[in-house]
Design a protein that fits this description.
The protein has eight helices and twelve strands. By secondary structure, it is of the alpha/beta class.
Length: 271
């Protein structure tokens, strides 16, 4: 009875309570690393980030277009740098920006969309919006773990960051938690500068800032992943643009690491 009253007081559904109890953890979950081997001397991956599924500005037509693109181009795997769900921030008025309210509605919507990518290994991390379901009221819901349990080919690499090693090439997924900068390249540049010499990845994909960017510095190929969500009222108020779209990369490797890096970003415009 005490548990029932507590769930009711938190405004959670029974399904949300089950998920929260099943995935409850103390503190931040550690970064994970996964490794795969590609037999060829090259590999290709698609990437996207900051879907914010459940927000009114999430672009389902863009998601459908991206799925068709990936099925046509056949990447070896897909990378996702977080903020799968819009979350429930508690910010005044935020609930009125949502098409899907609460974890259960947002998660089921995301699961249906992400299942369309099950033909490809799909590696992702949780962003700060996903972690509202982890930290708010200590609910303990790890969105990526629930996606991994529910989808055939999704692999959760951690909260905020995670690593994937592909035939010796280290790829880091990263999701920031601070505000955007005046210069589009600043956050990615400072992130790459923060890596110590022996810990640098070959490639880093960064989410959170909703910017699209390719940058090469310190021997690291850096990507800002853009977003699948249009400009929110919060971003408009802060005069922050949203670079909508997704990317595709082909990497050629040799004994020394990355030999060639071919990148393209497919932009999307609201009409």
């Amino acid at each position: 009875m005490e548990l029932t009253r507590a769930v009711s007081k938190l405004g959670m559904t029974e399904d949300e309570a089950v998920v929260a109890l099943r995935s409850l953890r103390r503190g931040q979950k550690p970064t994970k690393s996964s490794a795969i081997t590609i037999s060829n001397r090259s590999f290709a991956f698609g990437y996207f980030t900051d879907s914010h599924i459940g927000h009114k500005q999430f672009q389902p037509k863009l998601f459908d277009y991206m799925v068709k693109f990936f099925k046509r181009e056949k990447p070896d795997f897909i990378l996702n740098a977080g903020d799968h769900l819009e979350g429930m921030s508690g910010r005044p008025g935020h609930v009125y920006e949502l098409t899907h309210v609460g974890f259960n509605q947002q998660f089921e919507y995301a699961k249906g969309l992400y299942s369309q990518l099950d033909n490809f290994p799909h590696y992702g991390i949780d962003g700060n919006h996903d972690q509202w379901y982890f930290k708010k009221n200590d609910n303990g819901v790890v969105v990526g773990e629930e996606l991994q349990k529910s989808l055939k080919n999704y692999h959760h690499l951690g909260q905020d960051e995670g690593d994937l090693v592909v035939s010796g090439i280290k790829i880091k997924l990263y999701h920031g938690g601070d505000g955007t900068a005046y210069a589009t390249s600043y956050k990615l540049q400072k992130l790459i500068e923060s890596f110590s010499g022996g810990m640098k990845p070959n490639i880093v994909l960064s989410g959170h800032y909703h910017k699209a960017l390719y940058l090469f510095t310190r021997g690291v190929h850096g990507l800002e992943g853009g977003t699948l969500c249009g400009q929110s009222s919060f971003m408009r108020g802060k005069k922050i643009p949203a670079h909508m779209g997704f990317g595709f990369v082909r990497v050629f490797i040799n004994k020394r690491g990355v030999e060639r890096f071919i990148h393209e970003f497919t932009p999307w415009y609201e009409v």
